[in-house]
């Protein structure tokens, strides 16, 4: 017979739900250990816990309103909202710099039925960003600091059962240097943005005072293919009324039962416990070994269920259900990652939680669908960046077989203060205790790019390392079975290395953007090889890598930082091949699976980090299918033209009526054929790159493409269409009827607007064709948001110092459209005139003075081309250099 050690914590029944108490006294009791259980679950006794959401019918005011906690306060003029809710869903996407960071109040009437009398009552918040003060009937019942972990408030003494109660919550997302995150490349949406629950328990219940956890922890101290054991630890609270006068005791029994996926009980452990009123009692149970457990893995995410109950005879006081997965794993610095004794390359991505129009107030169904999309793409790993995410995300990961790295939001730079450290330590403890029962979680993370801040003094470096050591110690103490990690950015100065930060955590995550923010694709492999050579005992994981893409931007000659879909695809193809070629790398995680909100960003899609494999609205980009073809076991066949279905370009040569461009197909089939307008372009054998490419001679109008292959005797097919606007090499070619030509001036990329117009990449003028004129003309650009337009790419690139633009179009009448923006100069610093075919169009154009900085300007005029002279647009400087962002010529007669 094994022994069970029980610790009795003497606590006041009036303690706030957020204050963990560490006083302990030992006692001993017997525990009954059983082997595999027989039969099925006994459902005759019902649980004593009641739990339901109170998400609907809240009143909201975005202001710090004095007296809003009072029951009689008049909130009739406030907005009516449902949870989840954020007050930053829209202002993070507008043209006004910044977004509201301050106080918002929520109020709700809450009916408590007579059936809840004599129960303990709690409000459980899954998340409120970032400081929440909770009131019930005017009484302050709790405060929580930190926007991404759950918390519980004991409202028993403040609530009135059988009456209407007033719940008021003050939420504040004001910048606070002592609360992580203090800065980051994502939005700090304010509000009660996750579910809120009312929980009613029997006075005897599993504690809700343990850092927002469910009070029961499930561990698997021994797992192999042959056998596995389960250990259950927890804390039982007894808050019965007689504790006010005396210490009463009652005998209860805690039983933990393991059920397999069919609902059959396979293991049971039971412990008799003396539960004293007014006290908390900890318990621990270890089962007999389960023979030949069904192991959890990404390919076979088999889940058991652990149900832990406390009862007295047939009466069930409380019950907690936890997911259970049997698996073991390790990281090897030379050979990578191993799961259940077998090597596994971690094929991962990062995820942020927000949606356009919703901010971070995302319903569970959309969270779950996100995880399903990730799984369908073939990934087996997700880094939840840069904060703990919704419980439904982890539930989905358990079910789908997605390995999780979860982290707290200590991002970019810490604040050197005791309060910052205390808040970070609390966040980490809350995250671990709330989520540790999920078998999908393999890594706890606690820092990201913490030396990215601009003021990195010696004191700051030392304080960061000290905090890292403290957070690492918390992980080792709270959950020693799991591995720890931090993510570090590319640091050519070597500060991470010299400070010793690299050596604190068990796995080093590297955020690397060679070929995007710096250097070339090949430098990625050189860098990680050097890291491994210098530190052969250090497990390495590529925690971030990615490149922008705007599916409106395309180029036949893509280049770094142009945000074209083509450069993004080249980037990912290179990185994955280099990662796969290095067995010492445990794997990598794409930054990011979805485009996400980052209000301070400009770039071609303002207020958005656009490195996703999906758009923010969850439309897959072509690059997603590269990964699906690499990772998915199901047949994948995708013609990579969906991002560029409308194109424009010149015929290959004079008199030709086609323009040849390469079309890529991503597939995991061995042989693929591409067919263009019913004509086969040949079959190709597909190699490890999972990409095949054909030259396609596009003609004017609709071009139909079909890709075809076979898997196990079944035909697999994909269909796509490309609408091509063909123009002659010589614009006045009589074999063509010239229609229009639109130019994305100063850019190597073609931009396709929402009306389907393809603004072609810029070029120098050549006789018979078109282009800019002037030896001093140079490309210029801005990464800033252009106001009052969604066509930012047309204005963000430009050509400065140009003398003019020429179009050798056939004789006729034309509309000419010129687009401008002033990116940097003040009024009067850039002034120029414009003429067309020698006729003044604008005599004095001062973009900043007449329109303002970063304001789009569109000017149109009409001109007549005659005598074969075409159209000549001339720019005459008055002060500074002329500038042009876009030009379109359209024939009207």
Outline the structure in words.
By secondary structure, the chain is mostly beta strands. The chain has 5 domains: 141 residues, Immunoglobulin-like, CATH 2.60.40.10; 151 residues, Sandwich (Jelly Rolls), CATH 2.60.120.260; 228 residues, TIM Barrel, CATH 3.20.20; 82 residues, Immunoglobulins (Immunoglobulin-like, Sandwich), CATH 2.60.40.10; 152 residues, Jelly Rolls, CATH 2.60.120. The chain contains 10 helices and 58 strands. The strands form 12 sheets. Strands 26-27-28-29-30-31-32-34 form an 8-stranded parallel barrel, surrounded by 4 helices. Helix 3 packs parallel to helix 4.
Short description:
This protein has 893 residues and is mainly β.
List the keywords.
893 residues, mainly beta, Immunoglobulin-like, Jelly Rolls, TIM Barrel, 5 domains, eight-stranded parallel β-barrel, seven-stranded antiparallel β-sheet, 58 strands, globular, disordered N terminus
Low-confidence stretches: 1-46
Instruction: Please name the fourth-level CATH homologous superfamily of the largest domain.
Output: Glycosidases
Estimate the helix proportion, in percent.
10-25%
Overall outline: globular
Stated plainly, the CATH topology of the largest domain is called TIM Barrel
């Amino acid at each position: 017979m094994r022994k069970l050690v029980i610790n009795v914590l003497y606590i006041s029944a009036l303690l706030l739900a957020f204050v963990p108490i560490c006083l302990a006294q030992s006692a001993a009791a017997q525990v009954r250990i059983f082997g595999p259980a027989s039969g099925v679950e006994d459902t005759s006794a019902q649980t004593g816990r009641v739990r339901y959401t109170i998400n609907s019918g809240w009143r909201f005011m975005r202001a710090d309103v004095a007296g809003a906690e009072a029951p009689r306060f008049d909130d009739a003029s406030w907005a009516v909202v449902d949870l989840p809710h954020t007050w930053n869903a829209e202002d993070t996407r507008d043209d006004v710099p910044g977004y509201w960071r301050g106080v918002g109040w929520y109020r709700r009437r809450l009916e408590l039925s007579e059936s809840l009398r004599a129960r303990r009552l709690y409000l459980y918040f899954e998340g409120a960003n970032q400081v929440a003060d909770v009131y019930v009937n005017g009484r302050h019942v709790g405060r929580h600091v930190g926007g991404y972990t759950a918390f519980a408030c004991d409202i028993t003494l403040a609530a009135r059962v059988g009456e209407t109660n007033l719940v008021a919550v003050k939420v504040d997302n004001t910048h606070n240097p002592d609360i992580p995150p203090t800065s980051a490349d994502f939005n700090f949406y304010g509000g009660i943005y996750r579910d809120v629950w009312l929980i009613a328990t029997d006075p005897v219940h599993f504690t809700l005072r343990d850092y927002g956890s469910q009070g029961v922890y499930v561990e698997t101290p021994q797992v192999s293919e042959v056998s596995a054991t389960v250990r259950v630890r927890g804390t039982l609270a007894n808050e019965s009324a007689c504790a006010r006068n005396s210490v009463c005791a009652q005998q209860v029994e805690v039983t933990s039962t393991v059920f397999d996926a069919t609902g059959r009980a396979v293991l049971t452990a039971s412990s008799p416990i003396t539960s004293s009123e007014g006290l908390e009692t900890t318990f621990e149970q270890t089962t007999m070994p389960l023979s030949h457990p069904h192991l959890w893995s990404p390919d076979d995410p088999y889940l058991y269920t652990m149900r832990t109950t406390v009862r007295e005879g047939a009466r069930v006081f409380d019950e907690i259900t936890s997911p259970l997965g049997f698996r073991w794993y390790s990281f090897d610095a030379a050979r990578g990652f191993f799961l259940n004794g077998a090597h596994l390359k971690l094929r991962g991505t990062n995820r942020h939680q927000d949606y356009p129009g919703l901010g971070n107030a995302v319903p569970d169904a959309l969270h779950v669908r996100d995880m399903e999309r990730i799984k369908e793409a073939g990934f087996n790993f997700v880094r939840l960046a840069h904060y703990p995410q919704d419980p439904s995300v982890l539930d989905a990961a358990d079910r789908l077989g997605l390995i999780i790295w979860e982290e707290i939001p200590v991002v970019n730079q810490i604040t050197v203060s005791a309060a910052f450290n205390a808040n970070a330590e609390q966040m980490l403890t809350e995250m671990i205790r709330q989520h540790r029962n999920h078998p999908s979680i393999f890594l706890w993370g606690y820092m990201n790019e913490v030396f990215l801040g601009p003021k990195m003094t010696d004191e700051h470096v030392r304080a960061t390392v000290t905090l890292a050591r403290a957070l690492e110690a918390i992980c080792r103490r709270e959950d020693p079975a799991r591995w720890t990690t931090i993510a570090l950015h590319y640091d050519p100065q070597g500060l991470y290395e010299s400070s010793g930060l690299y050596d604190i955590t068990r796995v080093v995550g590297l955020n690397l953007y060679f070929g995007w923010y710096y250097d070339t694709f090949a430098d990625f492999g050189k860098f990680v090889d050097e890291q491994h050579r210098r530190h052969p005992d250090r497990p390495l994981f590529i925690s971030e890598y990615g490149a922008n893409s705007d599916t409106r931007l395309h180029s036949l000659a893509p280049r770094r930082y142009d945000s074209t879909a083509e450069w993004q695809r080249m980037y990912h193809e290179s990185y994955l091949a280099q990662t796969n070629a290095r067995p010492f790398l445990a794997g990598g995680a794409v930054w990011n699976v979805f485009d996400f909100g980052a209000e301070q960003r400009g770039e071609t899609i303002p207020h958005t980090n656009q490195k996703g494999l999906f758009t923010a609205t969850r439309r897959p980009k072509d690059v997603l299918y590269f990964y699906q073809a690499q990772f998915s076991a199901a047949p994948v066949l995708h013609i990579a033209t969906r991002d560029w279905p409308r194109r424009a370009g010149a015929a290959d040569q004079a008199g030709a009526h086609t323009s040849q461009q390469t079309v890529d197909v991503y597939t995991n089939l061995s042989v693929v054929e591409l067919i263009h307008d019913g004509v086969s372009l040949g079959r190709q054998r597909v190699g490890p790159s999972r990409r095949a490419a054909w030259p396609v001679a596009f003609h004017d109008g609709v071009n139909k493409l079909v890709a075809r292959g076979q898997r196990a005797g079944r035909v697999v097919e994909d269909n796509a269409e490309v609408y091509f606007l063909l123009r002659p090499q010589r614009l006045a070619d009589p074999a063509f009827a010239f229609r229009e030509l639109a130019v994305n001036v100063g850019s190597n990329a073609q931009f396709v607007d929402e009306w389907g117009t393809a603004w072609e990449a810029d070029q120098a003028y050549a006789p018979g064709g078109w282009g800019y004129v002037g030896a001093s003309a140079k490309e210029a650009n801005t990464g800033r948001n252009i106001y009052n337009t969604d066509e930012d790419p047309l204005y963000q690139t430009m050509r400065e110092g140009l003398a003019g633009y020429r179009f050798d179009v056939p004789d006729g009448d034309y509309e000419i459209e010129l687009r401008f923006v002033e990116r940097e100069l003040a009024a009067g610093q850039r002034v120029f005139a414009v003429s067309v075919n020698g006729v003044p169009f604008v005599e004095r154009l001062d973009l900043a003075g007449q329109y303002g900085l970063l304001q789009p300007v569109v000017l149109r005029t009409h001109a007549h081309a005659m005598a074969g002279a075409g159209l000549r647009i001339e720019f005459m400087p008055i002060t500074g250099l002329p500038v042009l962002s876009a030009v379109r010529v359209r024939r009207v007669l």
